[in-house]
C-alpha cells in the first residue's frame, strides 16, 4: 500500500513538472525564390550555399590517392606471425587410387580372417576341444553371435588405418597399412590354431 501511494505521488509530481515547462513554439521557415539571381534566400536575408559541383576525373583520382595514402600511413604496420610456409585451409590430403585399392583389399582380408576365426572357434567349441581364450568374446562363443562380435575388431582397425592414411604426419602416412595387417594376421593365426584342434 505504501509502494502504490509513493508511485501515485511520483507520477503526480512528474506530470505537474511537465505541465509547468514551457513548450517550444515551432516557427515555420519561409523560403522565397529570387527569380533574378535564380538562387534561394531565406526571409531573414542569409543565403543558402550553392549546390555541389561534380569533380573532374583528374581531381577525383588525385583526391582518392591522397585519401588512400593518408589511410595507409595511419594504419599500423602488419608483421607476419611466422615466416614458415602456410598450408591452404580446407585442403585435405587425399590417398592415391592405388592406396585406396590396397585399403579395400586389406579390409576384405581382415574381415575374412575374422570370419574364419569365428568359424573355427565355433567348430572347436561344439566338439568340446577347447574354450574361448578371449574374455571379451566368451559370452558370444556358444552362439552364432560370435560371427558378428569378431567383426568389431576389423572395423576398428579399418578406421584407424584410414585415419593414418589421411594423417598429416609422414610417419603415420607411411605405416597406414599396419593396423589392418596386424589385425588380419592375428585373426588368421587364431583361426588356424582353432582349426588344427579338431581332428
Q: How many helices in DSSP terms?
A: 7
What structural class is derived from the secondary structure elements? mainly alpha
Number of strands: 2
- Strand order across the biggest sheet? 1-2
Shape: elongated
Give a short account of the largest sheet. 2 strands, antiparallel
Task: Describe it.
It is a single chain. The chain is mainly alpha-helical and 199 residues long. It has helices spanning 2-20, 57-74, 97-126, 145-149, 152-165, 170-174, 178-197; strands at 31-34, 39-42. It has a domain at 97-197. It is built from seven helices and two strands, in the order αββαααααα. A hairpin with a 4-residue loop joins strand 1 and strand 2. Helix 3 (97-126) packs antiparallel against helix 5 and helix 5 (152-165) runs antiparallel to helix 7 (178-197). The termini are far apart. The model is unreliable at 35-41 (pLDDT under 50).
